[in-house]
Structures are given as structure tokens and as C-alpha cells.
Specification:
Chain lengths: 247, 300
Amino acid sequence: MSFHETNLLSVTKKQFIYKLQANLGILISLMIIQLLALLLSTAGVSSMSVGTNLTIINLKIISGDIIIVFTLIWAFIVGYNTAGNAYRLDYHFVTNRLSSNLASGCFLLLTSLLAGITATFCGVLLRVLLYFWRDLLTTKGLSMAPALLMKGSYVTVLYACLLSALGYFYGMLAQRNKALTVLIPVLFFGSLFAAAKDTRAAQLFRQVLVFYFSESSLALFTLKIVLTVALLFITIILFTNRMEVRK
Amino acid sequence: MHCIESKNLSKTFDKIKAVHDLSFTIEENKITGLVGRNGAGKTTLLKLIAGYLLPTTGEINVFGRNPFNNLQVAANLIFIDDQLALPENLSLEETLAAVGQFYPNWQAELARALLDYFSLQPRQYYANLSKGMKSSFNMIIGIAARCPLTIFDEPTVGMDAAVRKDFYRALLKDFMQYPRTIIFSSHLLSEIEELLDDLLLIKAGEKYLHLPLDELRNYAVGLTGRESIIRKMTGQEQVLFQQKLGRDSIYLVARNTFDQQTLQQARLQGVEISPVATDDLCIYLTAQHKGGIDDVFSRN
């Protein structure tokens, strides 16, 4: 039987489709997470009461932030699971380490796109619900300009990309060495505690957060995220290139 | 043309040599049986061939290329064992369609017909299948993929005898239509020997025998009779297995290096000469003790 020549692009494409078919269930989990976040959001993210003897004013601030946060956590978990699934499922059929990572990358890009857009539109849904269900003191901020909506979606998609790439990175390290599964969260949360104190390490950690979360220029922000995600993926590709599978 | 070439191949796990200094070549379009005791290194060898593992030392070439992390080699081989992980959310027919797109020679109709024959419901889920049915499904994938190199690592685990027989026959029929290189590892040599062209026997990670099956069948003879006569005709190095049958009679398996005259003479002296079944022979060849398990109980 004759030898069949193939190329990276066609294998990656096949594997991407295979991954999509194998992981359709995660879309349901996304919907559940966002619905849950939507319900939690209607209760308000913060509230305060001001009162005199005669009147009490209850002030509730309601925002769609919880939906975004939940979606980003979901993106991280999807990234982590994709790494585990890639390791578990990919190598039974035609693949190599590079095509597996590329297909995972395409898959995460797609899920981030879906997650980012749906999360932003959930925010719109929240506003609609509030308009009909609650007595609003003010409608300020209730409507959203289409341009702002677009921008919000775009930024959320990029954050979802970053978080799922981080999840994938963590997941791949964990596949390579089980000790890292524990070590990385310990380092991460440890650094959070350190950040609470005012040390030099804390300064650095804060700078990292500022670097990603306080960028006002959209173009610069895009560049930062794209470069970071690319760096993470290149590291993984180099890191897994000599990885043994199906041991 | 050589399909697989191995030179001094070794693989060590935590100081244990799973495969040790293994050199062999496997020709194209032949069915080779890979036989060895538990822990002999069969699966490790197959995973080295499939490019999942990196050799510690030595070299392995599949289709003239290093298989490790090689897309071209991966596109031309399929590795079927009982560890096959498939997407949980797909039914059997969806799985077949999803897997089939990877392989240019995929036989969708054949896969469907085999599914039907082995009474697997297309709407069933892989996770809900019994062990034997999972093996049947894996085997269907392995046959329908029609890969130039098809590796079966103990594919019949959990299958009942009837299904195993059908499977061997299906494999042979498809092989005759589309010859390809097949490596088949199994403990049930007596069942698969009809299929095989060659046999590769490994013992403790090393190659012990690699020869056509016809030669294996004449590799040794069984001698039953009086111990003194049989001892006289066989040298110590020839003996592969011996078992006392009574006070002075013995059953002894020896390498068949006798000429016709010696055998004829032995027959006249009352020695019964019998062929040795290939699976028994492999057990004797790979045994650590010449007396088998009896050695353990006759220490005192």
C-alpha cells in the first residue's frame, strides 16, 4: 500500500474539526455559567443604604461585570481542559505535537470569540431585564451605544483569549509534570498574598496587573495580548516538541 | 522495501530496560506477529514504532523516517490498543465519521457493515460498551482505516472466541484485498498463527527469534520416551523444555537439528516424536526455567 504524503495545514484543519465535534458540550456549560452570572447580577454587585428618620435610600449598583468575570474563569478552565484533552485524545489518530497545539489554539480562539461576544450581549440582556423588572431611579448607563458594545465585545474576546491561553499553558505544564499542578497555584496565590503587603515583589505583581488591565489605548492593548498569547503558545510548542505521549 | 528498521534500539524507564538492543527489519505488506511474555517490552516497542516514545539509544526508522513526532509517519499508521480514548459525546456512527476524516483510505461502508455485523448499535456511546465490544469497535477502526502500517496491540482483549475468530477472518480478508504492513501483538499465538507471515519473539526486551512461521513450526520437536535414550540423543544446549512423566520416562522439547536417521533410530527405540505447537514453543523459548512452573514445586 502506497505511502500517503500529507501537510501540516490539512492535518491541523482535520484536527480542529475533530476537536470541535468532541467538545461541543462546553457551549452548554458556557450558557449555564452566563445564565447563572446573569441571575447573580440582577441582585446587584454592591449596595448601600443612606437614611434619616423619615426616609431610607437604598442604593444598588447593578452591572454586568460578574458575567464577564465568570466567562473569563470559564475561558481559563476551557484552556486547561483543552490541554488535558489534547494530551488524552489527540495522539490516537493522525497528529504530531505541533499540529495538536495549533488545532488547540484555533479551537481556543473560537471559544474565546464566542465567550467574549456572548458575555457582552448578556450585559445587554441584563439591562433589558432590569428595565422591565425593577423600579429604576435612573436610566443612566442603561442604554449602550453600538460602538461601545463593539468595543466591549472586542476587549472581552481578547481577555478570554489571554485567559484560555494561560489555562492551556498551565494545563500543558501540568501534563508534563504533575508537581507543577500544585506548584503553580501555590505560587500564584502566594504572590497574591505578597501583593497585599507592600514589598518589592508586590510592586512587580501590581505592575503586571496594571500592564494588562489598565491600558487605555485599544491598539496597544491588542498588541500586548496578541504578543503574550503568541509567547505562551511558542513556549508550549517548544516545550512539548520532545514530549512523549500515550505512555 | 523495509517498512520498519530498528538498529540497537533501547528504551529505559526508571533504570528498567523495557527494550534492549533490539535490531530487526520488518518487510512491507507482511503480517508480523509480535509475541513475548508479560513485560517483555512488546507495547514499548510498538509505541516506539508509532513515534509516541523517544528511544533512549539506538535508532528506529518507519518508512525510512524517524517516527517520533513525525506527521508523515503518523498519517500512514494507526495504532490500536485497548487504551483508545474517543470523544465521549459522540455516538459510534458519529465517532466513525469523525475518525474517518483523518484517513485518506477510510472505508466508511466497510466500517458500517462491520458495526452491523458485530451487533453494535450506531446510536450507542463508546463509554457504555462492554470491554469486548469496545475491542470490537477499536478493531473496526483499525481495519477500516486501511493504513499502510497498522499496529494492533492485543486488540482482542475481552472478545469472546467467536468474535475473535470473525475478527481474524475480517482482517485477513481485508488484507488480501489491500495488502499492507500489519503488526499484531497477542498472547493467543495458536489463534493468530494462521494469519501470520512472520513472527518476532522478544524476551526481556531483546530479540529472541524473528523468522517466517513455516520455519517456526519446524523449529523444535517433542520427544516422549525413556529418559536415558532421549538424553543420549540430545545435547544440553538443544533442550528447550523437559517434563518428567514417570520414574524413567520424559517429555522433552529440543531444537530440531536432528537428521532423519537419528529420528528414525529413536523411533525404533520407542521414542515418540511429535510436532510442537507454536504457542507452546514460544512459552518454552521465553521461560526462565526449563521445567516450567514444576520447578517451583519440586525445589525440595
